Structure formats: C-alpha cells, structure tokens
What does this fold into?
Amino acid sequence: MLTTPDYLLLLFFGMCGAFLSGFLGVGGGMIYIPVLDYFLRRLGLQDEMLVKAILANSLFTIIFSGSVSSWKQYRIGNFYPREILLTALPGMATALSLTWLIRSGDWYSKQLFNYVFALMLLVIAVRMFSANQETGVEKEAPNWKYRITGLFAGIITAFSGLGGGVVMTPLFTDWMKQPFKKAGSISNGVIPLFAITMGIFNLSVPAGAPLMKGQIGLIFLPLLAPMILATFVFAPLGVKIAQKTKPGVIRLIFAIFTGIVFTKLIVEIVQHP
It folds into this structure.
C-alpha cells in the first residue's frame, strides 16, 4: 500500500527523470530503474519477475518522458523525423523480439540484469568523460549508420530498460559526428517509439494475480502515475535548459550522473552477489 510520502518520493524522482530525459535525451531510465526496483521489491517481486516488471514499468514511463521531450524539440525547431525513423524502425524490431524472449522464460535473472546494466553504465561514463569536445561542424551521416545504431539501441533497450538513449547519444556524437543537441533530439524522438512498442506488449501480457489495485499486465499504474505527471512540466524544462547549455557541460553532467548510478549499482551487486 502506497503512503503519501511514497507518492511524494515518486513525484520527486519523476521530476528528476523527466528533466534528465529532456536535458540529456536519455529517456529518464537511469532514474526510473533504481526507484522501480525499490518499490517493486516492496510489493514482493523477486528475481526474474522483478526484472520483467522493472523493464516493463521503466519503459512505460519513458513513453511519456520521451514523447513530451520530443514534442518540445519539435516546437523549438530542433526535430529530425527522417533520422528518427531510420533509427527507430530497425530498433523496434530487435527490442520487441528480445522483450518477447525475456518474457518467455526465466533465464534473465536479476543478477544478470545488474551486470548488464552496470557494464553499460561504465562504458558510457568512460566514453563521455574521455570524448573530445564537439567542434560544432556537422557532418552528413549515411543512412546505414542510423539503422545500425537503431538495431543496437533496440537490443540495449530490451535488456536494460533504459530506452536506448544512453547508447544512441554517444553513437550519434562520436561515431556519426552529429552535434550534441541534434543527437539528443533524435534520441528523444526514437525512445518513445521503442517504449510504445514494448509498452503495448507488456500491457497485454497476463502477469498472474494482481499485486495492487490499478495493475494492468506487468504495468503498475499507481506507481507510475506521479512520475508520468512530472514529465509534462520537467521534460520540456530539461529541453529548454539544454538548448542554452554548452555541449561540453552536458557531456560532463551525463558522465557524472551515469557514474553515480553505476556506483549505486556496484554497491547492490556487492551486497547481493
């Protein structure tokens, strides 16, 4: 049973996740996943079912944070529909296929999830700290690079619940030489398309006896409602501030925040090997 302090906590972390979604173009999953892990454990979920619920609910929340951020990018004229579709379509196929495989068995344990999540965060943090600063010169990237990025991001989305932004943004900037703000906009456009595809799937999959009122499939709406509400204010705010912030500063914030989440995860792995 959720209490008033629980709802306030969910609202606060929803604000943080939504702001980062708009500011960094990552969907907010780095915030949502640890919060959902805590609350879903309280409901009694464990191991494989806990992983499935974390992935499902993180991605469902990302539908809103990513969509609102992308809409704000459109409103300010920083929107790239061709690049978004080139990236999203192959990624949606890989994300949905792997989500189905995860839902079909018990092979993807919480321990394995922690290792995958930690490895990804470490690689991203190191890459962001060490990457060269943006030169400001935009280069035209071939279509196949967007497709490859989408395929890889779809795999990461299914396994981590992060929405794919944490890998798309570095690939767009460092591999495809796109400006950081354009990379964030494309990522924000792709993320909700991934999340909607898997969100529909997770809503329709039977999950046994419901653990709380308002649960539909694997989606726990009472947990998500405060975080979703926060997206409508704080995701656009993140986009607005990002447009006024130097790319080097955004990179540094991205790397620092990823490092914080990585450290928290390592502590959990050590405590529960």
